[in-house]
Amino acid sequence: MSGIIDTVGSKSGIVGSDIYPAGHVIQTQAVSSNNRETTTSSSWNSSWDTTLAITPYIASSNIWLCATLQCYSSSGAAFFDFYKNASDVTETYNLSGLSYGLSEIHNDENWCATAITFIDPVAENSISTKTYTISGRTGGAGTTYIGGGANAGVTLTIMEIAT
After folding, report:
1. What are phi and psi of 23, to 5 degrees?
2. Extended beta strands in 51-153, E state
3. What is the value of pTM for the model shown?
4. DSSP category for residue 108
5. What is the distance, to the nearest Å, from the Cα of residue 97 to the centroid of all Cα atoms in its chain?
6. Which listed residue, of 7, 15, 81, 161, carries a Cα 20 to 30 Å from 24's Cα?
7. Where exactly are the structural domains of the chain?
């Protein structure tokens, strides 16, 4: 064995693929918020307060991202994706690279729920700490909301997956 992880998750030695076969979950983190966040920008932004930082144990791991959110658009469409930042990557507010992101809503004056998932292949192949959150933008004029207060929240979950 090339390294171990003790019972509280601290790294000891070098963790290798002989410990975690491909597809196994190495670590999981989650955060939830009931805060209501808004944007009026048609450019991708990450003003949301559901942010997580993860330091992969294995450089070649993938990071699986999943978010569920209550959302609303006061004027047409709203688009959602993931934000990523790390010391060894270019900061991106649109991790998927898709123009309309991973989820799109068209619900003028109605709240709705949506979920987005994405696998970040961590192309930088490093164990630098990566920060993730939800990103979003409006489809035009108006305001996009996520999180509806005490009765409607947002959850972000990230998992390191061995490759």
Report:
1. 95, -10
2. 52-54, 62-73, 77-86, 103-106, 112-120, 130-138, 144-146
3. 0.83
4. B
5. 14
6. 81
7. 26-117+131-141+156-163
